[in-house]
Amino acid sequence: MSENEKMNNNSVDNDQEPQIPESKKNEYSGFLKTLSTFTGDIYSLTCPSFLLSGVSTLEYGQYWADYPELFAAISKPADEAERALAVLKWFMSTLYGSFASRKDKEKIEKKPFNPILGEQFLARWKEINGCGETVLFSEQVSHHPPISAVYLENKHAGVSANGHTGQKTHFKATSARIDVIQVGHIIVRLRDYDDKYLIMLPPLQILGLWRGAPYVELSGTSVIQSQNFNTVIEFSGKGWISGEKHTFSSVVRRNGSKDHLFTASGTWSGKSTLENHTTNEKSVFLDVGASNRASPIIEPIEKQNELESIRLWQHVAKAINEGDFSTASKLKGEIEQRQRDKVKRGEETVLQYFDWMEEDEEFLSLYDSIT
């Protein structure tokens, strides 16, 4: 048996083994019973502390720059079709960190903290192979409904990505899964070219709940739309009988054309293949496992302001990491109660990095072009 086969077999076995601590199984069973009878968006449902990840949802923006050199590379090609392909490659490179990296590290997917209104997460990445520095600004711009705004920029390359994300979450009892509709989008802009790229976010599912080994699977369709090119990404996952987790297939076309310029397919958490239909050549598109994700540079806690995620949640995260779940629940509740008290007093939260737009003409124009 090859090493790859051993790794794949181990991965399957780990998915099927419950990872909930023995002392917490009764509490977990109670949580599942609550889920099965809950109606509406489960965002507001209190999650047991031992299922919390110790990080804020707002920190997930850092995964946009797991490979900052791919983000900077969007502006390199002189050919617009190649730039459309570069946007696809960058977007696919963000998915492992966003949706699979925590499962690989902790064996189960855990729930992040719900950010409070005005919460911030700031980071930067040093240049890699001359790509220039990349910076990230993210801020919680709404609490009900929860919306996180994210801005990523590499000034050296002349590339920026501005977007917002939110989730509408429901439990589907018939298939024992949580369905998540990702609300929001990303727009990639280039300093030296007029093309802009609207990225619509794919739905996702949280599976493996009954086994006590929850994990995230992307499903359905995502679209990347520019003024002249359309990319459709189809996500699928492991079925009841067969199939491979985290798979995708994508096609890049010119708007209004059925001809494939590029196709890329494989696993978004591992290796994928690119086919250039103009040259009939195949090559490696991405190999997430073969390259290291870049580490963000984040200010020390003592230099962060009181609304930055790591400082805000530091004591809750510490309690979770130490297995002191009762203290974690108490401290988390105190933060959330302060937020509720602030709302009751009518105190306004002034956003530091983002402004509301009543109507985004750029988004509407690109969205209307989706075919």
Automatic annotation (TrEMBL):
<protein>
    <submittedName>
        <fullName>Oxysterol-binding protein</fullName>
    </submittedName>
</protein>
<dbReference type="GO" id="GO:0016020">
    <property type="term" value="C:membrane"/>
</dbReference>
<dbReference type="GO" id="GO:0005829">
    <property type="term" value="C:cytosol"/>
</dbReference>
<dbReference type="InterPro" id="IPR037239">
    <property type="entry name" value="OSBP_sf"/>
</dbReference>
<dbReference type="InterPro" id="IPR000648">
    <property type="entry name" value="Oxysterol-bd"/>
</dbReference>
<dbReference type="GO" id="GO:0008142">
    <property type="term" value="F:oxysterol binding"/>
</dbReference>
<dbReference type="InterPro" id="IPR018494">
    <property type="entry name" value="Oxysterol-bd_CS"/>
</dbReference>
<comment type="similarity">
    <text>Belongs to the OSBP family.</text>
</comment>
<feature type="region of interest" description="Disordered">
    <location>
        <begin position="1"/>
        <end position="23"/>
    </location>
</feature>
<dbReference type="Pfam" id="PF01237">
    <property type="entry name" value="Oxysterol_BP"/>
</dbReference>
